[in-house]
Design goal:
The protein is mainly α and 249 residues long. 57% of the residues lie in helices and 3% in strands. The chain is built from ten helices and three strands. The protein has helices at residues 16-52, 59-70, 89-99, 111-122, 133-142, 149-165, 168-178, 188-196, 205-213, 228-241; strands at residues 78-79, 180-182, 185-186. It has a three-stranded mixed beta sheet, covered by helices on one side. The longest helix has 37 residues, at 16-52.
Length: 249
């Protein structure tokens, strides 16, 4: 009589944890890829939109309003958008003289100024950023304030986009309509009325230099009844303005 041979069943290979691990990693990769594509798509959309549409508000405006509120002050946000042709050429030259002398020559980054700023900071001197008008515009319109590698990386990304899509004239227009020019005062038109009680298109050279001189810290410095330090900045800006040629965007 034949006897049946019984074979022991081999234990199943423990592959479930590995499969779960691979599944998690693949899901994470897909999530990161989708997030990157969404970020790229949305950022491109808003850059293209703001090439044609006035920027209604910036992250800094919201932050300052909240700061005012938490400090028990009125939530002030004075901001009047005007086209570039309604902003005095004096002010356009003043910010170039004060903030970015190579604005029309660089592609968004002034590496010479960045190197000087880095060297100065390494020596323990007062921190300087070396940011161009393009970089400042990208930061003001799309990003938050502060210093971090993430923010600087995103600032570089948006700077490249606006240089490629907007061009210099639009960058200057957005810059002069968006930057902080006083406590709760944003843009050339609001600043001109706040400091000099006139429209931005009627600013004199001295008045334009006065506004440009306070840009490093517009909540601390005053364009009128200024400190000795600000008066020196005004004088320097006026001297450099004489060397700024015609701004051909």
């Amino acid at each position: 009589m034949a006897t049946k041979k019984t074979t022991k069943a081999k234990p199943a290979a423990k592959s479930a944890p590995k499969k779960e691990n691979k599944s998690f990693i693949s899901k994470l990769k897909r999530f990161v890829l989708k997030a990157m594509l969404w970020f790229f798509g949305l950022s491109l959309f808003f850059v293209i939109l703001f090439k044609f549409v006035p920027v209604p508000f910036t992250p800094l405006m919201a932050v300052r309003a909240l700061e005012h509120n938490s400090g028990g002050k009125d939530m002030v946000c004075s901001h009047n958008w005007v086209p570039l042709e309604d902003i005095s050429m004096n002010l356009q030259k003043a910010v170039v003289a004060s903030e970015d002398g190579y604005f029309l020559k660089h592609n968004g980054f002034d590496f010479g100024a960045m190197q000087k700023a880095f060297s100065s900071n390494q020596k323990g001197k007062k921190l300087k950023g070396g940011s161009t008008i393009s970089q400042q515009t990208a930061k003001n319109v799309f990003l938050w304030q502060g210093r971090s590698y993430l923010r600087k990386g995103l600032e570089a990304y948006f700077t490249v986009l606006i240089e490629l899509i907007w061009g210099k004239e639009r960058i200057m227009e957005v810059y002069l309509n968006s930057i902080e020019m006083g406590d709760g005062v944003y843009g050339a038109e609001a600043a001109s009325k706040y400091w000099f009680h006139k429209s931005a298109k009627n600013l004199t050279k001295y008045e334009a230099a006065s506004i440009a001189a306070i840009l490093p810290n517009p909540r601390k410095y005053k364009a009128t009844n200024s400190s000795a330090y600000v008066e020196r900045r005004k004088s320097k800006t006026l001297r450099v303005m004489r060397q700024v040629g015609k701004l051909e965007y």
